[in-house]
Design goal:
The protein is mostly helical and about 525 residues long. The protein contains 21 helices and five strands. It comes from Gemmata massiliana.
Amino acid sequence: MNWRSICLAAGIASLVGGLVTFSYGGESWLGWTLTIFGAAASILGFVPDQLLTIFKIPELRKKIFITLIFLAVYRIGYYVPLPMIDQAKMAEKMADAQRGALGQVLGFVSLFSGGNLSNACIFSLGIMPYISASIIVQLLSSGVVPSLEKLRKEGESGRKKLNEITRYLTVPICIIQAIMVVQTVMKPDTGDGGGMGLAPTGYNDGFELWWFGFTAVITLTAGTVLLMWLGEQIDEYGIGNGISLIIMAGIVARIPDATNSLLIDSATGKLKDSVFTLGGGSGADISLEKLIVLAFLFVTVVVGVIAMTKAQRRIPTQSAKHVRGRRVYGGTRQFLPMKVNAAGVMPVIFASTLLILPWFFFNAIYNLSDSSLGWAGTLSTMFQNHRGWLYNFMYVIMIYVFTYFWVAITFNPKEIADNLKDHGSFIPGYRPGKKTADYLERVLMRVTFVGAAFLAIIAIIPNVISSELEIPVQVASFYGGTGLLIVISVALDLVQKINSHLVMRNYPSLTDET
């Protein structure tokens, strides 16, 4: 019996042990430990030889271990709370807020930032201020500010300067967001939703309140700057994109809690009885057929996301022939790839964030009118309901708008056409210059339409699942939707970078068939 068979046997035994632990009300930590160990051992039993090869290369092995260490530091800081905050009261407040639109927005922002707004920790803001600063700098360098556009075209030196500007811009954005968070947490709870009143006795007025507010703002800002530094260290010394890996780690870390709330009865600690019953699930429970449908949708979404993430429209290009002496250069046929999902997940983030504004607006009008304006209350309720037709319709429209907007500022057909012309290449059937730029723009508009449709379907899948299967949105978002899109996109990028190290040393890549 070889080591693979031993790992496979140990993995199956551990998975059975975890299932028995959950079924008979054993300790939750023991059940999850056995389940995770069993899954890891089972995967190790089936793992291809290429995956084991990455640990035979010293440099690659060192990069992977450094990346894991930095991610572990991030996860440790995730559980370090802010001082002078009543954490028990905070958890109670956020549990009540989860049922409203505010709680859904906080969960969504935490999902994409790698932070934890539902728990006052030093990484509450996550990496979102840095992402916001990056978006602002990218928009300004796309023709709005000529000096920044000039830096963007200078190559590596210009990119380093833009990164430095992004770091400096992150700090004031951090301070502004930290002040808003601290003010909301510390402001007395008057019942109008303006504050939470979480300051303990002795720190809720006077100098102590102001001093705590100052230290909390500095702590939150330093936490985000530390995350930014961790991401840059992963970029330099680890493997993969550091910021993306931090966001991915935050999403993946929430999956056990989502699975636990879906399958485990919080009162008894056992698997819910409805899991083994056909048609027995109602409300917070889930029946066997719903679990099968959810698993099928998960696999379908994963396959679809991988296919659309790697999909591209290849435009043929031809380079002109150059005769130098007796040799002929050029004349080769190549392709200009245009990704179907060129905008990534940014349109979904923009659309979801912007759609919270109508709820705040109509809710404020309804409250200011002393509930006399019924139409404002109705619209506020409709925008609060993520399962309703109005919210999902506006969601799809906003995704299309922001997809075209983001592609327009990141892909310049005229610049691509000029680059092709400068390098002596052309698209067969189209003259270099304006004709080529017009053709690229037409193709871009058609490809972007398909990419926007894909993003819209992925974005509303959690809402459809939670509505039809009666599953909480927080649970459904992990088995479909934008969270899964981020995880798969980052994983594909990580595999591609590992493959580059393997191929460079004449090893087969992870995606090669054995």
